[in-house]
């Protein structure tokens, strides 16, 4: 590896600048705001994915062909630690990339890193950063307050039927973890209605709404739950399960009674908004 090396220094101690690789959604900017209170940060917003952030946060837009530029800026800022956060909705079209020289050097490894299921890709991407001398840190290390604490978010709690559906959903996700499929499932009245695949949580919830309208299953409005949790053995440095206001709105449109997530290993983004909207819609959001 040529050129300057990333600066040393342990993560989470407030020393050294943290590089945040930001994908889509409000979460990367929520994390940046929290972390910036105790540590210097620089954000690299993934072009075509990341939303616009506040002007007060130093941000550099990067495309898939600009790894060299990102690495150079990170080194100039004294970064050793990297946080990967936010959704990446599509994998890059390598045929359309015009790489800088550093990206050209790394391109064979980048292509290999993008092949496989979500867990495989996460491990490959983390390995790519580590091979370049960076240390990829987890949300638990960089911003633990973003992780769901046990208990309800808002005023409402699941009833006995919801509790049974939550337990079934958790068992199903435990059993399906080795297959690297998805992180969430919809369960209604003791029946698994939908399992998240490559389409993501929001699209899965839209599918639940469609099949409810088509009367492919019958239940009262407010029955059932969305259950989301990390896979067994999942590397929590990336692809941490996340719910936010859009997730809640999707669950409400699907007619579900609420959302249950795994405490300590799931992020609840936009927590104040989620609590207020859940109470207004008379649905629950709970971490277990």
UniProtKB/TrEMBL annotation:
Protein name: DUF1009 domain-containing protein
LpxI N-terminal domain mapped to chain residues: 18-146
Source organism of the structure: Acuticoccus sediminis
Pfam families documented for this protein: LpxI_C (PF06230), LpxI_N (PF17930)
Residue intervals passing through the bilayer: none
InterPro entries the UniProt entry points to: LpxI, LpxI_C, LpxI_C_sf, LpxI_N
Residue ranges annotated for the LpxI C-terminal domain, each copy included: 151-286
């Amino acid at each position: 590896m040529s050129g300057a090396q990333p600066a040393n220094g342990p993560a989470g101690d407030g020393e050294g600048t943290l590089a945040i690789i930001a994908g889509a959604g409000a979460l990367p900017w929520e994390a940046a705001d929290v972390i910036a209170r105790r540590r210097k940060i620089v954000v690299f917003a993934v072009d075509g994915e990341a939303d616009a952030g506040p002007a007060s946060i130093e941000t550099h837009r990067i495309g898939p062909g600009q790894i060299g530029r990102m690495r150079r800026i990170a080194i100039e800022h004294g970064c050793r630690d990297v946080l990967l956060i936010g959704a990446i909705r599509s994998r890059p079209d390598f045929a359309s990339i015009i790489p800088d020289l550093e990206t050209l050097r790394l391109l064979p490894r980048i292509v290999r890193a993008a092949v496989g299921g979500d867990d495989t890709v996460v491990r490959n991407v983390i390995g790519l950063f580590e091979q370049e001398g960076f240390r990829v840190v987890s949300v638990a290390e960089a911003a633990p307050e973003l992780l769901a604490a046990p208990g309800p978010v808002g005023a409402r709690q699941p009833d006995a039927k919801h509790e049974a559906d939550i337990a079934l959903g958790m068992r199903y996700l435990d059993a399906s973890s080795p297959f690297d499929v998805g992180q969430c499932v919809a369960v209604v009245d003791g029946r698994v209605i939908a399992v998240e695949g490559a389409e993501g949580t929001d699209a899965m919830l839209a599918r639940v709404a469609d099949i409810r309208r088509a009367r492919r299953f019958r239940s009262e409005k407010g029955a059932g739950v969305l259950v989301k949790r990390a896979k067994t053995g999942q590397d929590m440095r990336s692809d941490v399960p996340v719910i936010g206001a859009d997730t809640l709105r999707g669950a409400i449109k699907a007619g579900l009674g609420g959302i249950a997530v795994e405490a300590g290993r799931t992020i609840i983004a936009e927590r104040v908004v989620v609590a207020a909207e859940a109470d207004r819609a008379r649905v629950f959001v709970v971490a277990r």
